[in-house]
C-alpha cells in the first residue's frame, strides 16, 4: 500500500509533466510499481476529464448568481418575519376571544348552570362583575380588541 | 488546494487577505469566478448529472453566502465551499433514491455487462466512477480532479486525516480495476 515515490509520480501527473517531463528513473519506477501504475491510470484519467469539464462548464455569470442569492435571502427574511407576526397576532386574537367569551353575555352564568346540572363542580370560570362601576372600561377594551383583532389578522395574512 | 487559480488583476496576497473579510459583492464575484467551474466539475462528477450539477452549483453559492462566515485563508474558504457542495450532493442522492443515481455493488455484474455493450471497449471514466461508492467517488475527484491534499479531503468529507491514505488507495484500486475491465 505504500510507495515512497507515489507523491513524486502524483505531482508529475497533476502538473502535466507526466510522462515526457519526468526523468527516466521515475518513469522506470512507475512502470514497475503496481501502486504507481494504478495511480497514473486513475489520476491521469480523472485529471484530464476534470480539466475538460472545467472548460465545458457553462456556469451562470457571477453577477446573476449574486443577484439571485440576494433576492432569495430577502424573500426568506420577509417570509420569516411574516410568520412571526402572524403567530403573535393569532395568539393575541385567541386571547381576546377567550377573554371576550368569559365576559360577554353571562357565560359565567351559563357555565354555572351547566355545572349545577352535570355536577362539574371542579370547573369554574371567574365570575366577573358587570355593574357600571365595575368593568365598563374593561368591557370597552375587550370589545375593541374583538373588533380589531380580525382586521389585524387580515392585514397580516393577506397577500398583496 | 494546489491548483489555486488567480486572475491577472488579483494577486495571491490580495486573495488571502480577502478570505479573512466578510464577503461583499465584489469579493463574491471574484471568488465565484475563481471557483465556480471547479465546483461545477466536482458536482457533475459526483452526481453524474449535468442538469443537477447546474442546480446544485447555485444552491452551493447561496448557502455559502447565507452562512456569511469569515475564513482563515483562501484554502479554508474553498474547503468550506466544497463541504457545502458535498453535503448538497449527499442530500440530493438521498432524495433521489440512492440506487437510482448510483448503482449498488450487488448489481455491478449486470451493470458492467450492459455498460460494456454500450461502450464497446471504450474507456469510460464516467461509467466506472458511477460504479464507485459515493464516498469513493468524492475521494477520487477531490484528490485527482481538484488536487486536494489529504488534510483538505478530510476537512471536506468530514473524515479523519489519517484514514484518507488507505481509503484513497482502496478507491483508486477499485477504479483502476473498473477501467481495466472497460
The quaternary state of the protein chains shown equals heterodimer
For the secondary structure, the number of strands of chain B is: 0
Q: Which runs of chain B of at least 5 residues are low in confidence (pLDDT < 50)?
A: 1-8, 98-122
How many strand elements of chain A? 0
Could you explain the architecture of this structure?
The complex is a heterodimer of chains A (160) and B (182). Chain A is mainly α and 160 residues long. Chain A has two domains: 6-56, no CATH class; 62-157. Chain A has six helices and no strands. The longest helix of chain A has 42 residues, at 62-103. Chain A starts with 5 loop residues before the first helix and ends with a helix. The mean pLDDT of chain A is 79. With 182 residues, chain B is mainly α. Chain B contains ten helices and no strands. Chain B has helices at 12-19, 25-47, 50-67, 74-95, 98-101, 108-119, 125-130, 134-146, 150-157, 161-181. The two termini of chain B are 31 Å apart. The A-B interface holds A 1, 13-14, 35, 37-39, 41-43, 45-47, 49-50, 53-55, 57-60, 62-63, 65-66, 68-69, 72-73 and B 2-3, 25, 28-30, 32-33, 36-38, 40-41, 44-45, 54, 57-58, 61-62, 65-66, 123, 125-126, 140-141, 143-147, 165-166, 169, 172-173, 175-176, 179.
Amino acid at each position: 500500500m505504500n510507495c515512497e515515490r507515489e507523491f513524486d509520480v502524483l505531482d508529475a501527473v497533476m502538473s502535466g509533466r507526466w510522462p515526457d517531463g519526468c526523468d527516466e528513473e521515475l518513469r522506470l519506477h512507475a512502470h514497475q510499481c503496481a501502486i504507481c501504475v494504478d495511480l497514473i491510470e486513475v489520476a491521469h484519467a480523472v485529471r484530464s476529464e476534470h480539466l475538460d469539464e472545467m472548460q465545458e462548464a457553462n456556469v451562470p455569470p457571477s453577477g446573476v448568481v449574486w443577484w439571485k442569492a440576494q433576492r432569495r435571502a430577502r424573500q426568506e427574511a420577509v417570509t420569516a418575519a411574516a410568520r412571526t407576526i402572524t403567530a403573535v397576532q393569532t395568539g393575541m386574537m385567541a386571547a381576546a376571544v377567550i377573554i371576550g367569551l368569559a365576559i360577554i353575555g353571562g357565560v359565567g352564568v351559563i357555565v354555572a348552570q351547566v355545572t349545577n346540572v352535570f355536577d362539574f363542580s371542579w370547573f369554574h370560570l371567574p365570575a366577573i362583575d358587570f355593574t357600571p362601576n365595575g368593568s365598563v372600561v374593561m368591557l370597552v377594551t375587550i370589545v375593541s380588541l374583538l373588533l380589531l383583532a380580525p382586521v389585524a389578522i387580515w392585514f397580516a395574512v393577506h397577500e398583496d | 488546494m494546489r491548483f489555486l487559480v488567480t486572475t491577472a488583476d488579483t494577486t495571491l496576497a490580495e486573495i488571502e487577505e480577502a478570505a479573512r473579510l466578510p464577503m461583499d459583492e465584489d469579493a463574491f464575484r471574484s471568488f465565484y469566478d475563481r471557483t465556480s467551474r471547479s465546483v461545477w466539475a466536482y458536482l457533475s462528477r459526483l452526481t453524474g448529472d449535468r442538469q443537477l450539477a447546474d442546480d446544485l452549483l447555485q444552491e452551493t453559492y447561496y448557502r455559502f453566502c447565507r452562512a456569511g462566515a469569515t475564513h482563515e485563508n483562501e484554502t479554508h474558504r474553498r474547503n468550506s465551499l466544497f463541504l457545502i457542495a458535498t453535503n448538497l450532493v449527499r442530500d440530493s442522492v438521498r432524495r433521489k433514491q440512492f440506487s437510482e443515481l448510483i448503482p449498488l455493488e450487488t448489481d455491478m455484474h449486470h451493470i458492467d455487462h450492459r455498460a460494456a455493450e454500450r461502450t464497446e471497449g471504450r474507456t469510460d471514466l464516467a461509467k466506472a466512477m458511477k460504479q464507485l461508492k459515493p464516498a469513493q467517488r468524492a475521494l477520487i475527484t477531490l484528490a485527482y480532479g481538484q488536487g486536494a491534499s489529504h488534510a483538505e479531503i478530510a476537512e471536506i468529507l468530514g473524515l479523519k486525516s489519517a484514514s484518507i491514505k488507505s481509503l484513497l488507495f482502496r478507491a483508486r484500486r477499485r477504479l483502476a480495476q473498473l477501467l481495466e475491465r472497460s
